[in-house]
Design goal:
CBS-domain; alpha+beta; about 220 residues; 7 helices; Histidine-containing Protein, Chain: A
Length: about 220
């Protein structure tokens, strides 16, 4: 999202909004109240409709619109949360036919705006950049996995994971964390595991016939 958001208030005039859009090269401005909570949004299309309506009502002799943001804005405004993923954000914008989506914090205050171009930007990430983030931030930085444990390949945003992790519970965790990264289109994994920690007491896989079974704690004398 864009964090440095240009905003308007209910009493901001048509002319002032036009100047904001032109000066900052944005397609819309959220309208906020005294607590910086979005109450609406005014887009270029709203200004065009307002001016076209004035021309039609006044026989083409109208000058620039005179309405305020209160009259021009689309309201109520649809908002997003900062922790939303790319897919969820895109789905809301698609269903609502929205070009701009204000982002609010837990108190409903404006923290940023997501545009359609923002959604496309992560898709333009280089495959090698994605691979480095998976290796450095996910596998080594977050999960502390040995560097040789998981092999990562990325092509056109599709991530392929092979190798062996120690615990079975790590397999879905690795997949989920990789899938959440910007630019990742799909995750394909064929990860094996050494220890099944999802069962009581656990067991090794594949089983080692030469090793004695590991008893559950309840079976200890």
């Amino acid at each position: 999202m864009t964090r440095d958001v240009v905003t308007a208030h209910r009493d901001t005039t048509f002319q002032e909004i036009t100047e904001l859009l032109l000066h900052h090269r944005v397609g819309a401005v959220p309208v906020v109240d005294e607590q910086h909570r979005p109450v609406g949004i005014v887009s270029e299309a709203d200004l065009v409709r307002e001016e076209a309506g004035l021309h039609a009502r006044r026989g083409g002799r109208a000058r620039a619109g005179t309405g305020s943001a209160q009259q021009l804005m689309s309201s109520p405004v649809v908002t997003a949360r900062p922790d939303w993923g790319l897919v969820e954000t895109a789905r809301v914008m698609h269903h609502g036919r929205l070009k701009h989506l204000p982002v609010v914090d837990g108190d409903g205050r404006l923290t940023g705006v997501v545009s359609r171009s923002d959604l496309l930007r992560p898709m333009l990430r280089d495959d090698e950049e994605i691979r480095r983030e998976i290796v450095d931030d996910v596998l080594l930085g977050s999960l502390w996995l040995p560097a040789h444990a998981v092999r990562v390949a990325v092509r056109d945003g599709v991530v392929t994971l092979t190798g062996t992790v120690e615990r079975r519970s790590l397999v879905p965790l690795v997949e989920t964390m990789c899938r959440s990264l910007d630019g990742v289109v799909e995750v394909r994994q064929s990860l094996a595991f050494t220890w099944d920690d999802t069962l009581l007491g656990g067991y090794r896989w594949p089983p080692d016939d030469s090793a004695p079974p590991t008893p559950n704690s309840e079976e200890q004398p």
